[in-house]
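Model it.
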Amino acid sequence: MSEITYQSTRGQEKGLTASQAILKGLAGDGGLFVPDHIPTLDKTLDELKNLSYQELAVTILKLFFTDYTDEELTECVNKAYDEKFDTPEIAPLAEADDRYFLELFHGKTIAFKDMALSILPHLMTTAAKKNGVTDTIVILTATSGDTGKAALAGFADVPGTKIMVFYPKDGVSPIQKLQMVTEKGRNTSVVGIEGNFDEAQTGVKKIFGDKKLNEELKEKGYRFSSANSINIGRLVPQIVYYAWGYLTLSKNGVIAKDETVNVCVPTGNFGNILAAFYAKQLGIPIAKLICASNRNKVLYDFFDSGTYDRNREFYLTSSPSMDILISSNLERLIYRITGEMAEATAKLMASLSGSGSYTITEEMKAGLSDFYGDFADENATAEEIREVFEKSGYVVDPHTAVASKVYRRYRDRTGDTKKTIIAATASPFKFTGSVLKALGKETGEDDFKMAADLSALSNVSVPKAVSELEGAEIRHKEICAISEMPDKVREFCR
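Modeled.
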C-alpha cells in the first residue's frame, strides 16, 4: 500500500503525513489539506459487507492515514464507536416513504457530527505522540449548531487538550444552545458571538493565520488545531458511513451486486457531501451526489451557474446547521476540478475573500458532473416533514427534510429511480418546535414538554442527550463581538 501524503489546496505546504496534517488542522497558507491521491479499496465489496462498523472504519481509515499503525487505528476506532452510541449498528439504515435514511444521530449529541468527532480526539492525541508534540493542543471551532457540542463532547477532559467553541448567539436552536452552554468539561470554553456562523468561521480562520498570536501562545506551550471539517481527520471518518450505508443495502438484499445508488445530503459547509464524493472515488458504487440546500442556497446557485457568490441576504432558518454562505470544504473540490492546480485554487479563494465571489471555467464546471444541486425553502421543508410522517409514520428533522424534499423533486424531474440513501443528519428531538409546528401540533416555550409530545407522537423515546439537559446548570455565559475573539482565546490560554 503506497504512502499517502497531504498538501495544502493553496500549494505552500506539501508532503505532510496524515498525523501531521491532523495536528495542524488548517494549512499555514489558509488552504485545506488534501491527500496527494485518493486510494481505492483493497478488498471487494463482498468481503466488506459482513464487517462490523468498527472493522469497516479501520479498513477505510488505514487507506488514508498510512502513517498510523493498524493497532493505533483499531484503538482509536474502538474508543470512538462504543457504548456512546445507542445502537450497535452505529449508523442504522431506516426505510421510509420509498427511500433509505442513513441515521447518523445515534451518538452522544444526536447529530451526525458525532460520527467523526468521536474519533478525532483519539486520532489527534495519537498524532501528538507520534510527532513528539508536548504542547497542549487548543481546539478552536466555529459551529452552526451541531459541531460545537459534538466537539465539546469528544474533547472534554481529554489530557493534553483544551477546546474553545464559538457559536452565533442567535443562530442555533434552543436545544443546540443548551447542549453547549451546559458542557461540564474542565478544559472547555463556549462563547456566543454577535454575528452569524460565516463570521465565526472567518474569525477562527483569522486566528489560525495570526502568526503573532500563534507565536505568543506557542511560548506558553499551546498550539492550535481544529475540529471543524476543515481538519482532514474529521473529514475522512465521514467516508466510512457512506460505505456502511451502501454495504447495508447490499447485505440486506435491497440492491444487486455492484448496483449503483444515489446519495442525497443536506449541505451547508460541504464536508458531509464531500465525504460521499470521496467514498465514490474510493470505489463505493455511488451514481449521483445530490446536494440539498436550504433557503441559503449559495451551493445550489453555484452548481447551477458556476458562480459562487456570498454577497446575498443571510437567512435564519429551521435548519440552522445549513445557514452558511461560505462553504469551506468546497475548496477541496475546487482544487480537484482545477486539475489540482494550487495557484488557480488560491486565486479563486482570494477572489472569494476579496469581492465575495468567483466564477469557475466551463472546463471546471464539467468536473461537477457527479453533482446535482437543488434547495428547499421553509414551506417546502415543513411540507416534507409532514408528508414523510403521514406516509410512513417516520419523523425527520428539518435538515433531513431538506434533503428528502430535494430528492423527491430530483426523482420527479429526472425519472431517476435508483435506490437512494438520504443522510439523516440530526434527531428530530433537536428541533422539536419546528417539527411539531410542521406536523400541525401545538408548540410552546418549554422544549422538554415539546420533546415529550414528539415522543408520544412518534413512539420514539426522548433521547438522553435531550432529557439530561432539563435543569442542567448553565456554565458558559460569555458573549463577544467578532473583533474580540482573539482576546477570548488569550484569556482561555492564560
